[in-house]
Amino acid sequence: MIELLLDEQKDKYNEFCSFAESNVQPYASDWEREERISKDIVNKCIEQGYLGCTIPEEFNGNGWDSITYGIFTEAIARSSTSLAGLFNVHTMVMQTLLKWGTEEQKNKWLYRMCKGEILGAFALTEPDAGSDIRGIKTRFTPKGDKIILNGKKRWITFGGLADIFVVFGMMDDESGKPVACFVEKNTPGFEIIPITNMLGFKASYLAVLEFNECEVDKENIIAKPGFAFSHIAPYALDYGRVSVSFTALGIIGGCLNYCCNHVLRRKTFNSRLIDQSTIKEMITKMGVDYEAASHLCINSCKAKDMSNPNYAEKVMIAKYFTTRAAHRHADNAVQIMGATGCNENHATARYYRDSKVLEIIEGSTQIHEMILGNSFTKKFRKIEKK
Ligand SMILES: Cc1cc2nc3c(=O)[nH]c(=O)nc-3n(C[C@H](O)[C@H](O)[C@H](O)COP(=O)(O)OP(=O)(O)OC[C@H]3O[C@@H](n4cnc5c(N)ncnc54)[C@H](O)[C@@H]3O)c2cc1C
């Protein structure tokens, strides 16, 4: 990947890798066991000024382009997918504020989010609606200058640590339109219940959110009712998919590092593992997919930053390819490491668990096939006619 970067991006990537090697990698398996990243690492990220990510400097942000955000995620995910998940959802909320927020909403939350004084989480999924978001049941009932929320969200990343939530629901009026609003943590009628025992992303404070006659100001509504599914969610999810693609890329890169060291050292039947053709094949496929995925990830970010009309599809292609490849190679990495890779404390065991989750979040593999399959059919049928 590094050879695809500009000099300034290479310097940034080296900085991110050395930050992760010193501050993340030594502690990541403890966090997974304890099912929570430490507050210390959040504070260190704040000290480094990383929380402002892709937000322009005028709002206290870092002004990173998508590639810089991506390579930051890649470097962090090699050591902790859970920590990468914090930046994923925090960025989705900040981008929602930047794109759709009013001046008052930005003044209230965006500057403080960039400094890391408050953290964000993104609440779309419900117990009865995941891939098919049109099935969400959370009700937003207008009452004077307030909105009353009733409903339940589930699997919300960093729900247990966040201060401000983007919450999606349906207007409980004659319009019945989909709607989104900002909800602060300590709002009466809002309860946060931790979820434990996940397969992967174990340290990412997953939570159920319950809204029971929860009263928020009408001015917390984002954009206007009717925009939630067509504009607000897709815009944020594009950032989510960039993050997930680079997380998967970091996993493939990590698999390569651990496996290459191991196959050069480990001997069986008087020869090194690398001298076995079956092992060479696994390493070759890992290296080739890392290269291919690097191009897809970087190109999708370039398209996004240049507002290419097809950028969202390119981001989906990168997400689809890289997450599936990450799970294949994490499987092979555990195979290559043998029993060592079966120990929870080894990075390849975590890669194996986390890579499965990447195929489910930010649009599952099957949902990508539904959308991309239709799009490719239209596109290539046109070419055939010419
Ligand atoms: C670790 C983790 C973190 C998460 N973080 C968040 C978060 O921060 N915020 C949030 O809102 N949500 C979050 N989610 C929820 C996630 O977005 C959903 O799990 C995802 O959208 C899939 O929904 P579901 O689990 O309800 O599965 P379902 O939608 O019930 O799907 C079940 C299976 O059926 C497949 N499927 C569904 N429809 C079709 C179809 N038409 N054709 C073929 N196959 C189909 C799916 O691909 C999947 O394999 C998180 C989930 C996990 C595991």
Automatic annotation (TrEMBL):
Q: Which Gene3D superfamilies match?
A: Acyl-CoA dehydrogenase/oxidase, N-terminal domain, Butyryl-CoA Dehydrogenase, subunit A, domain 2, Butyryl-CoA Dehydrogenase, subunit A, domain 3
Task: Give the Acyl-CoA dehydrogenase/oxidase N-terminal domain ranges.
Answer: 7-117
* Top-level taxon in the UniProt lineage: Bacteria
Q: What cofactor is needed?
A: FAD
- The scientific name of the source species is Ruminiclostridium papyrosolvens C7
Q: Could you say which residues form the signal peptide?
A: none
Per its record, what are the GO molecular function terms? acyl-CoA dehydrogenase activity; flavin adenine dinucleotide binding
Q: What is this protein called?
A: Acyl-CoA dehydrogenase
Acyl-CoA oxidase/dehydrogenase middle domain ranges (all copies) = 121-214
